[in-house]
Amino acid sequence: MSRYREAAWLPLPENTTQxxxxxxQLILHSAAAPWSPKRLRDFWNERGVxxxxxxxxxxxxxxxxxxxxxxxxxxxxSANNRAISVESAADTRxxxxxxxxxxDTLVEIMVWAHREHGIPxxxxxxxxxxxxxxxxxxxxxxxxxxECPGKARAEQFxxxxxxxFLETLGGVLEPxxxxxxxxxxxxxxxxxxxxxLQKALIEHGGKIPAxxxxxxxxxxxxxxxxxxxxxxxxxxxxxxxPGVETCKRLNLRVA
Length: 255
Hints:
By secondary structure, the chain is an alpha/beta fold. Helix content is 29%, strand content 10%.
């Protein structure tokens, strides 16, 4: 069980019924309502409401946790199976900025998620790339696109919240083992997990002339196969497609 000790524990029924996940992302939201964590929890629990978040943050910085962060919360569409969601009180148009108290709490939750789950201290580079972001960042994080958490808060995220987060970690990126999904490491795919794979291969002496482009083509497949052969593997075990053991030896964690 993963619970943030500074949060009031306000569990939803879904906490015991929804699938477990391995979080690799944290996404910040705004609720379009000036609600406390308890009021937000009550809303998620209303009949007919089919979404929920892991956390809720009030205007005063008070935080409630509704779901264990190893349990799926349905607030991020295609990212539900890997993302922690943090809702925050806002005006009804999601047009106001986060308060100083909210920023303090959001930074603290981000630091906790980084240390608890190994989420990399970086802004997500794609919808599947491990890291931190805001809901509007990628269309696939919502059903039909969204402006959440609003323009003002999106600007605060890059200009204030994320720099504060890094500063709290000591001003530099803490070394974190990248987390990848095997389904993303397939020939012909382009995504952030492939970038991490390519960087790991290069660090281990692999030859990818085009560099870490994020595209899994012939060069990457050849580099993976060469790395696998260096491990003494042959046949299907050196087919150029990484499995769990290949990733482990490249210092990559499999989600």
